[in-house]
Amino acid sequence: MNKKQSSSRRKFLQQFSFSAAALAVPALATASENQPPSFAILKRDNGFSNLDNINLGLIGAGGMGVEDTKTALMVPGVKLVAVCDLYDGRLKEAKSRWGADLFTTKSYKELLNRKDIDAVIVATPDHWHQQISIDAMRAGKHVYCEKPMVHSVAEGPAVIKAQKETGKIFQVGSQGVSSLGNEKAKELLKDGAIGQLNYAEGFWARRDPVSVWQYPIPADASAQTVDWDTYVSNTNKRSFDAMRFFRWRNYTDYGTGMAGDLFVHLFSSLHFITDSYGPNKVYASGGLRYWNDGREVPDVLLGTFDYPKAAVHPAFNLSLRCNFVDGTSGTTYLKLVGSEGAMDITWDSVTLKRNQSMNSDDPFYIEKLKTAGQEISDRKKMQGPESITFEAEKGYKGGPYDHMNNFFTAIRKNGKVAEDAVFGYRAAAPALLCNDSYYQNSPMFWDPEKMLLLKK
Ligand SMILES: NC(=O)c1ccc[n+]([C@@H]2O[C@H](COP(=O)([O-])OP(=O)(O)OC[C@H]3O[C@@H](n4cnc5c(N)ncnc54)[C@H](O)[C@@H]3O)[C@@H](O)[C@H]2O)c1
Questions:
Q1: What mean pLDDT value characterizes the chain?
Q2: Whose CA is nearest to atom 25 of ligand 1?
Q3: Which ligand 1 atom sits closest to the C-alpha of 67?
Q4: C-beta separation of 143 from 117 below 8 A
Q5: pLDDT tens for residues 348-405?
Q6: What is the largest CA-CA distance in the chain?
Q7: Residues 121-171: pLDDT tens digits?
Q8: Whose CA is nearest to atom 40 of ligand 1?
Q9: Cα–Cα 20 to 30 A to 136, which of 11, 200, 238, 299?
Q10: Which strands make up the sheet holding 170-172, listed edge to edge?
């Protein structure tokens, strides 16, 4: 352990014993008299911005567009004025949800032409993120763009350029990075709570048809109710296909597979927590094991990633897995493992587990120590808590609210967002390279600092 690591470890141990004592009162409910607390509350002092009104437009009013807008409308002073979607049903739903006087259109350009709109949410399928985001920033709008920021690695630099040139606020929608859970994990890692990071892993398990992208197709889906020509205008042209429109995640022209849809969240959180720029080697394997419904993407995917040593972290390895045929279903996790402990991280909790002792009761081990002339004492030692869980305070509005609030606060104060275009690209690229690795059956090499694809 180098000097810097040992001093941050000391800092953590000091803070840990202090916070354990300071938290003893709220934790008494869960800690018996002689036991240290195993539970602590996460809380943030959140300075709030002034309340200038912000007029919002929504582009892509499906599942996430609606959720994002509901979250945005929880932020004081935000008003929805216009909605764009390519399907009539979604525009009708928008009017019934948010009022008959809402402006609706099938053309995002018409929405962007409106002078009264300050900011837009882009929640279309992935193949439209880049073009609409760039057009929006060039039309003078701030942009909250859903993840993954882009549909392919090649698309990223143009978004970064547009953000730089226009100076508009641009936030990518991996909400976890603004959550209390991710912030606490970042703080704990920095303070040496798990020692030296050497490994991280993440997992998504799903099983029910809707969760694995077999969405219901509306009864009135047709070339009359859907603007199909616009939908495919930036990709391979085909005749109308309701599956490709409503179940777009299953097709590579529009979606980005499990990696672009799900791994990207774990990259965002991991990069936020570790301050990492990303891996330099990406390898993915998997297969289509069960959902033979015409999908072009695998339903089991494994990714391994090498993170090179950087100024802010040691070299470490990452393993990500996603299984859509998981009979146990419903598991998602992100774990960081270090030389002295590990953290299980969610958006509203962190469970920290630490090694109690490096010693062992194993008679073989003890015999070896004796042979080496080391003194063996049977005197018991003081022990810290084996595990402590930090949990968000009751009533916490959650990562999605914090992330949206971060976006609007940045607009009002002209400040910084948690996930700008550079951050969003560094999270999207290794996810998208998983797809390239899977289809090309080969590892992909990436320069995370310069954000360049390297030759094999
Ligand atoms: N951050 C998260 O947790 C999270 C969760 C779910 C989805 N997402 C992201 O949100 C985006 C949307 O996903 P979804 O599940 O809401 O999909 P969805 O199919 O429910 O909604 C997409 C909507 O976009 C519309 N659309 C398609 N092309 C358009 C265009 N060119 N102009 C205007 N509207 C267009 C469709 O008609 C549809 O209503 C995706 O990028 C997805 O990755 C993020």
A1: 90
A2: 60
A3: 16
A4: no
A5: 999 999 976 656 677 888 888 889 988 887 777 777 778 999 999 999 999 999 999 9
A6: 85
A7: 999 999 999 999 999 999 999 999 999 999 999 999 999 999 999 999 999
A8: 125
A9: 238
A10: 103-105, 78-84, 54-59, 119-122, 142-145, 170-172
DSSP states of 46-75 = --------EEEEEE--SHHHHHHHHHHHHS
Say yes or no: CB of residue 173 within 6 Å of ligand 1: yes
Please identify which residue in the block is written with the tokens 């602590």.
40
- Distance from CA of residue 43 to its chain's centroid? 21
Task: Count Cβ atoms below 10 Å from residue 227 Cβ, excluding itself.
Answer: 17
Helices (H), 23-177: 24-27, 63-74, 88-98, 108-113, 129-138, 156-166
C-alpha of residue 409 to centroid of ligand 1, in Å: 24
Q: Which residue among 66, 85, 182, 435 has the greatest number of ligand 1 atoms within 8 angstroms of its CB, and so is best to mutate?
A: 85
Residue 13 in tokens? 């141990």
The amino acid at 58: L
Give the Cα-Cα-Cα angle 144, 275, 141 (nearest 5 degrees).
Answer: 15
Non-local (6+) Cβ contacts of 244 within 8 A are 238, 251, 253, 254
By three-state DSSP, how is residue 446 classified?
Answer: strand
How far apart are alpha carbons 77 and 74 in whole angstroms? Answer: 9
- The pLDDT assigned to 129 comes to 98
Q: Tell me which residues of the chain have a pLDDT lower than 70.
A: 1-51, 356-360, 414
User: How far away, in angstroms, is 61 Cα from ligand 1 center?
Assistant: 7
Alpha carbon distance 62, 136 (integer Å): 19
For residue 124, which atom of ligand 1 is closest to its CA? 24
Instruction: Count the helices and strands in the chain (H runs, E runs).
Output: 15, 17
Q: Is 372 helix (H, G, I), strand (E, B) or coil?
A: coil
Question: Is 59 a pocket residue for ligand 1 (Cβ < 6 Å)?
Answer: yes
Here the tokens at position 280 are 């330099």
Reading the block at residue 194, the tokens are 């798990």
Closest CA to 446 of 267, 202, 182: 267
Q: Position of tokens 């030692």?
A: 381
The model's pTM is 0.89
pLDDT tens, 24-46? Answer: 222 223 333 344 445 566 655 43
Say which amino acid occupies 35.
Q
Tokens representing residue 307 in the block: 């993170």
Ligand 1 centroid – CA 194 distance (Å): 38
Q: Measured from the CB, is residue 65 less than 6 Å from ligand 1?
A: yes
Query: Measured from the CB, is residue 123 less than 6 Å from ligand 1?
Result: yes
- Ligand 1 centre from 122 Cα, in Å? 8
> d(Cα 11, Cα 156) in Å, to the nearest integer?
39
